[in-house]
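for the writeup, i need someone to sanity check this before i put it in the appendix. the sequnce is what the collaborator sent (i think, or maybe the updated version? ugh). structure was predicted straight from it, no edits. if anything looks off just tell me and ill rerun, i have time this weekend
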Amino acid sequence: MTKIHLHRGDLPSSLDLGPVIAVDTETMGLHPMRDKLCVVQLSAGDGVAHIVQLERTYHCPNLKALLADPDRLKIFHFARFDIVMMNRWLIVDCAPIFCTKIASKLARTYTDRHGLKDVTRELVGTDMNKAQQSSDWGAEDLTPAQLQYAASDVLHLHKIRDALMVMLDREKRTELAQACFDFLPVRAELDLQGWDQSDIFSHGA
C-alpha cells in the first residue's frame, strides 16, 4: 500500500522533500479562470506521497515557497496546465521545471501515446488506475480512492524522468527539451491572458 500523508491547508514547515520533487494538481475542472485548484500532491521519489488539500483562501506559505524555490527542480506531467493553475490560484511562478509529457513527445517519437498512464506502463512497468480522475476534488473529505489516485500521479515521475533523460540524450534532444521547459512559464502566461487556443507562432491569420 502506498504511504500517503494528507496535509490540510499547507505543508508542514519541517518537511524537506529534497532537490527534485514530483508535483501534480487536482482541480474542479480545466478552466483556470473558473475552476478552483483543490489539491497539490508531491513526492521526493521515495515511494511516499504528500497530498495538500488546499483551503479556498490559498494561504499556504510553505507550499508556495517550495514551488517557487529556484534550487528545487519540479517534475510534472503536462506542466503547462499545472503551472497555469498555480499561477492563477496560488499566485506563484513555479520553476525550474521538467515536464515528462514534453520530454515524451520529443523522445518517444515512435508513438502518439504520451498520457501519464501509457508512459508509466512503458517506462516503469506499472499500470495506473485513472478512475478517480473526474471525481469531486472540492469535497470537504477526500476518499481513500481519491488519495490513492492523487498519490499515483507523482510516485513514478522521478523514474520516468530518468528514463526520458537517457532517451533525450541518445536522440540529442536534451537542449531542445530544456528550452521547452524554460518557455513553459511564458506559455502559461499566454494561456491566462487569452491565447490558450491560438498558435501565435503560426503563419495563419
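The CA atoms of residues 79 and 99 lie 6 Å apart. The two ends are 53 Å apart (CA to CA).
thx in advance!!
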